[in-house]
Amino acid sequence: MNENILGIIAGVLTSISMIPQLIKVIKEKNVDDISLVMLLVLITGLSLWVWYGFIKDELPIILSNAFAVMVNISLLICYTIYKKP
User: What is the value of pTM for the model shown?
Assistant: First the structure.
């Protein structure tokens, strides 16, 4: 299998992995089972992958991780909106 195709498939799968969680949070308006630390660490790691992608000039790394950052930032925004005091 071509390594670029493998990278794109891996990037797509990891990028969409949090979408079901985001949909569930939006529908239920409940973030009690979401870890803030996990979200922050994940967003940081994904952002570093984007930076790495720019350094290496690898578009699949940049695009897949940038999309994942946006999904997880959306989840973080939901976390701040729906978190019970």
Answer: 0.89
